[in-house]
Amino acid sequence: MVAKARLVVAQAKDIESLRMAQAVLLPAVGNLTLQQTARVLGVGRATVARLQQRFRQQGGTDLQPHPRWGGRRRALLSVEKEQAFLSGWKARAERGELVVVSPLQAALSEQLGRQLRASVVYRLLERHGWRKVAPDTRHPKSDAAVQAEWKKKRYRKTWRPC
Question: Residues 9-67: pLDDT tens digits?
């Protein structure tokens, strides 16, 4: 394994494979602990153990870079499929119709074949830039002058002791 690691260090084309080989070489040749090796490589102690394990699993040849952390590992649909699902509803929204979450939730549940919570649909809409349109705070036919006049003329209650 040490010979393979030396070969990889000599021919390394990326930092990932170089670090994997060094994670094997430094403890074997330099008698360094995992903590000391981590300090030399500039990574955590657990990362050194992971690098050594990946080097052993891949046999020291044709080292594949590790996929980066992050991403949508728990996604129900890909982004493209989500956009395709929302495209039918987008036409209705552009015509001025209100898009209600409950039918959207039912359609998505039917497409996926399982029950979904409303929060899943709300996050889907937020992810694609949809926003919640709330109704106005006042009635369009309300008249402020009439309301002010009514307030002046209404019967005022007075509290009396029992």
Answer: 888 888 888 899 999 999 999 899 999 999 999 999 999 999 999 888 887 666 666 66
Whether the model clears a pTM of 0.70, i.e. scores above it, the answer is: no
Residue 97 lies in a domain: yes
Question: Residue 150 falls within a domain, yes or no?
Answer: no
DSSP class of 137 = S
Q: Look up the domain containing 31 and give its range.
A: 2-58
Residue 109: alpha-carbon gap to chain centroid: 20
Does residue 29 belong to any structural domain of this protein?
yes
> Which DSSP state fits 14?
S
* Angular region, 31: left φ>0, alpha ψ -120 to 50, beta rest: left
